[in-house]
Structure formats: C-alpha cells, structure tokens
Design goal:
This protein has 264 residues and is mostly helical. It is 66% helix and 0% strand.
C-alpha cells in the first residue's frame, strides 16, 4: 500500500536524473545528493551562503602568523565552556544545602562527570589566559587604532565579562575555599567609589551573604554573562570582517615604482 502525499515533492528536493551511461551512485551517493539538495533548498530561502562567503573569504594581510589565531582560540574556549556548562547544569543544584553535594555527585558518580567538570574548570583558566594574550597582541600590533577603535572597546568589555564569569563561577562548588574567597572578592568590590556599595548589595542579593547569594551568582554565571558575551562576540566578528585585520608592525608597505615616476 502506497501513501498518498498531500502535496507534490518540490523539484529542488527530487534526485537529479543520471546522465546516459552513468552508473548508479548507490545509497551513499543518493544520501550525498539529498544533503546537497536540502542545503540548496535552505540557502535559496535564507541566502546564508552570501553572508558566509562575506565572513570567511576575505583578504588577509601579508605576514599573518599564529599570533592572529588567539582570537579564534578564545572563541573556541568560550564555546567549550558553554557546552560543558550546559551538561554540568543538568546535575547542579544552586542551593546552599545541595550545591556541594551535587558537585560531589558530578565528580565522583555521574558518567564522565569528572572529565566534563575538569574541562570546564581548567577551560576557564585557559580562556582567561587567551583573552589577555589576544588583547596584548592587539595592543602591541597597533590593531586598536583607526578605524578599529570600536572593536577595541568591544574587546575590552569582553575581557571584563570574562573576568566576571570566572568570579561568579568560583562560588558555585560552594566549599570553604570558594565561600571565603567570594566574600573577600565581594568586600573588595564594595570599597569602590560611588557604585561600590550598590555593586556589593547586587552581588550578595542583600546586605549580607545569605541563602539567595548562591542563586544570584548562578544566574549571573549561567545566563546573564554568557548571553552578553555571545552577543558581543557576534559584534566583534562582524567588525573584524568589515574592517579587516592589520599587518604586523615590522612589515612596511611596498612603494609602487609607478607612483615614484608620477611624483617625479
């Protein structure tokens, strides 16, 4: 018994007819052609290929080296933190009574829990190091100058958000070390001029360290800061693709001999 389709299959999704004398491509060839047809169908309605070509296929200055990969490495580190953080959030309980026990369960009993938590813990350190190296490379190569000042500002904000994400994540294991270190850090923030006391109350969710402080840190660490970082990374990549990258400072622009003739 054959099923009747309510609507005919679009021509773009139908397999292409074989040329005379062409052999049957088999199941693998049919699957490949179906995937290409599906991508073409999606691209026809979204035009994403144009944006991908604009982002990926662009001119790169002469002398580009491994220093220019620090930004991409930082983005990969952030993606690793996001993926491992999602898996950790499936078991973590942001409660003063259950946080430590949930972390112990992740580390000792959950399937691959120790591996995932280790990736998240050490990945945060790697991300902080890469952010500072990337900012240092940008500064010493002069990539913050015109017309890339706005991209430098976005990168500086990303640096601050990365440090904030590390600070808020430090409390989540809720052991003695993280508890007292967070109290010291919050008290240091509270000594700042003007906004210090308000920032102190915001982080503690009240005048003192209470039951809701852990939930406040968890919400900032899991939702607020990652969302801001993802949005600013998108803006950062757009500006990089639009304005291009700078050549290393030790390379000088070659003078065109034709211009010398005209100036003479």
């Amino acid at each position: 018994m054959k099923l009747k389709l309510s609507a005919p299959i679009p021509a773009g999704l139908k397999p292409q007819p074989r040329r005379p004398g062409e052999k049957d491509p088999g199941a693998a060839g049919a699957a490949k052609e179906a995937g290409i047809s599906a991508v073409d169908w999606l691209d026809e309605r979204t035009s994403l290929s144009g944006a991908a070509r604009w982002m990926m296929f662009r001119k790169v200055p002469k002398g580009t080296n491994w220093f220019y990969t620090l930004g991409s490495a930082t983005m990969i580190a952030f993606l690793s933190q996001a993926v491992t953080g999602v898996f950790l959030a499936m078991y973590y309980r942001p409660s003063a009574a259950e946080a430590y026990e949930s972390v112990r369960y992740i580390t000792n009993e959950a399937f691959l829990g120790e591996f995932v938590r280790g990736m998240h813990k050490w990945g945060s350190t790697v991300m902080v190091i890469l952010v500072f190296l990337h900012m240092g490379r940008t500064y010493f190569f002069g990539a913050y100058k015109y017309p890339r000042e706005l991209n430098w500002v976005v990168g500086a904000v990303l640096l601050v958000l990365t440090m904030l994400m590390s600070f808020t994540g430090y409390l989540l294991p809720f052991d003695q070390k993280s508890y007292w270190a967070t109290i010291v850090g919050v008290n240091i923030n509270g000594t700042g001029p003007l906004v210090g006391p308000y920032l102190n109350d915001f982080l503690l969710a009240g005048p003192d360290f209470g039951a809701t402080t852990l939930s406040r840190f968890y919400a900032i660490h899991m939702m607020l800061v990652p969302g801001l970082i993802a949005a600013l990374i998108g803006a950062h990549l757009y500006l990089v693709a639009k304005l291009g990258t700078t050549a290393p400072p030790w390379l000088k622009a070659e003078k065109d001999p034709e211009l010398r003739k005209e100036s003479a």
